[in-house]
Amino acid sequence: MKVLVVDDSRNDRKVIRYNFEWHGCEVIEAANGRQGLDLATAEVPDLIISDCLMPVMDGFRFLHELKKFHELSDIPFIFYSAVYTGRTEAELAASLGATAFLEKPMRPDELWDEVGRLLAADVAVERGTEPRTLPEEEFLRDYSQVVATRLEEKVRELTDENESLLRLNGELERRVVERTTQLESANRDLEMFSYSVSHDLRAPLRHLEGFSQALSEEYAARLNTVGNDYLDRIRRSSRRLADMLDAILELSRNTRGKLNKVDVDLSALAREVMGQLVRSQPGRMVDFRVAEGMVARGDGRLLKVVLEHLLGNAWKFTLMKDPAVVEVFPTEWEGRSAFAVRDNGPGFDMAYSDKLFTPFQRMHSQEEFPGRGIGLAIVKRIVSRHGGKVKIEAVVGQGATVTFTV
């Protein structure tokens, strides 16, 4: 048996083809009614299985045109549709001479059995009269009614969906406002807490520093070596804690406030920061290499803070290198424009790199490379506020590279 399958869905055609070919049928395919009509006139199939809703020419028009050909009018025609499945559509299909109207989806074995049953019933029907061809005006009237009904249903569905989306959008906006308010409140509370902690701790720290200094000046001779060492450790620890409080306040300042985004000349900023570093230690010889034309969209004040920390780290960690080399250059990261600061310092073991963006986490001892351990945490916060990302790569003994996007 030769079967013509007409459906704009390639997957649906494939399922029907495999099903009927497995049962020994020859299957030919068309993607719309116009192609189906051309194939039917050329191949004269024994059975046509057609979808209803298709581009160019739908199933109803296809069947109507097919019935105009006397040699094709007796071919069993089965509609197999998932969209046009109402009573009006079934009545139109019957008036056009369709053998049956089946609703998608059916299991392959169910479809095969149902088609077999329909064909057997169709053969048993007496065909003493000529197949009736629906007049054009009658077809257009019934066809227009089916299409109009379907369009009305679709409009109602879309209207309901649109109203649902509007309700969801309103709910989402309300939640966003609530969460934003909560976040702003939490940020204010955190800012107040940071300020309070820093302010409240400074007074006892000043007392600790002052009294330990007085103790050292006035009573050092009465203390033995161990006592003076303990006293010195107390003073160093108090100064370290004061530095950490300053770092907390700096971290808070750089992660709040409104961003003023403009086109920032990173090349000029890098040269400015390097000039400050050179003036701070004029005796050092560092080979600074800054690429020209680096421009980023962001807050100029905060991007300068980023470069101050990154170049400050590179300056510090190349102290023992000869020659010391620090580079600033454009690059690419995950398909986005990025910028990098590279040095030839001591580097570090990448197994612990995640720690570096956490406040007060360090790879080197305070005695080896002094610092507060807050620089990269500030860099990450600022870059994140700009919608970017930052990463660090290093090799022990060969330096490190920090790459960021904004």
What do these coordinates show?
The protein has 406 residues and is of the alpha/beta class. The protein folds into three domains: 133 residues, Rossmann fold, CATH 3.40.50; 78 residues, Helix Hairpins (Orthogonal Bundle); 144 residues, 2-Layer Sandwich (Heat Shock Protein 90). 53% of the residues lie in helices and 17% in strands. The strands form three sheets. The chain has a five-stranded parallel beta sheet, with helices on both faces. Strands 7-9-10-12-11 form a five-stranded mixed beta sheet. Strands 6-8 form a two-stranded antiparallel ribbon. α3 links the parallel β3 and β4. The two termini are 66 Å apart. The model has no long low-confidence stretch (mean pLDDT 83).
Features:
single chain, 406 residues, alpha/beta, Rossmann fold, Helix Hairpins, Heat Shock Protein 90, 3 domains, 5-stranded mixed beta sheet, elongated
- Relative strand content: 15-25%
Assign the CATH topology of the largest domain: Heat Shock Protein 90
The beta-strand count equals 12
- Judged by helices, strands and strand pairing, the structural class is alpha/beta
Give the overall silhouette: elongated
Number of domains in the coordinates?
Answer: 3
Major beta-sheet overview = 5 strands, parallel
CATH class of the largest domain: Alpha Beta
Helical content class = 40-55%
Strand arrangement in the largest pleated sheet: 2-1-3-4-5
Low-confidence stretches: none
The helix count comes to 10
Whole-Å distance between the termini? 66 Å
CATH H level of the largest domain: which superfamily? Answer: Histidine kinase-like ATPase, C-terminal domain
SSE pattern: EHEHEHEHEHHHEHEEHEEHEE
* Mean model confidence by pLDDT: 83
CATH architecture of the largest domain: 2-Layer Sandwich
InterPro entries: BphY/WalK/GraS-like, HATPase_dom, His_kinase_dom, HisK_dim/P_dom, Sig_transdc_resp-reg_receiver
Pfam family, one: HATPase_c
Protein name: histidine kinase
Enzyme class: transferase
